[in-house]
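YM 10:42: Transporter substrate-binding domain-containing protein sequence, as discussed on the call
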Amino acid sequence: MKILNIIKLKLILVLNLISLSSFPQEGNSLEKIKNTKVIKVCTAGGFIPFSVNTKEGWVGFDIDMVKGYAEYLNAKLEVIDYHFDGIIPALNTKKCDLIASGMTITADRKKSVLFSEPYFKDGLSYLYRKNNVKFEKIKDISMLNDEQYKIGVRVGYTSDFYVTKNLSKAKILKFNETADIINALRNNKIDAIVTDTNNTKILQKKFNDIFEYKNTNVQNEYFGVAVRLKDDELLHSFNDYLNFWKKSGQYEKDYEKNFISLTKNK
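YM 10:58: structure's back
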């Protein structure tokens, strides 16, 4: 009887070892991607020109970047849309393998995720209605720190954190969708939108008969792709791809398509 129990115990141990070796361990998403030939990317749609979901599919600078990475890994790309404030929780509950969503690298976010090398530099600007006499006199964004102003931001972005901290006297309205915040500005429900500079430029170009914009003194934000804290191998792989993307000349082509061609005068 004792011998039979020992045999059963050994059999259980062997089966457990086989089970553990059959599946990628925690922190080895790269192996899982290579095995399944699928890479899942979380993004927040509507952030022009980084990630936008159109009738023809996903487009934007970040989308081109991760499409290239999927090809680099010989994997199929699956893009999953989340509100920005829910995107890190989605990553950390394994709804996706990485985040590509114009995400600024910050010390606070580094507590929850690992960031790639920076792939883009941006800043903060504010968009307002043309012929707004009050705004024509504004020389610095700090002058908007007044209860007479209603400022719109997208939830969870660095513009949200900046405005909450630095313009606390103003009335701050928070939005999940770009379309909603644009409509609020058009319909005089808010006085200005604070957002990323490149996003501001393209929105102003798109609505050039309605909006104007000004830059702030915050112009040193760096975007990175985020992975889970234990996914060192995936992070190393993506950084290798970033180097390849830039050296191959494809980075410049994707930048031209998504930024220059959208902002230059016709």
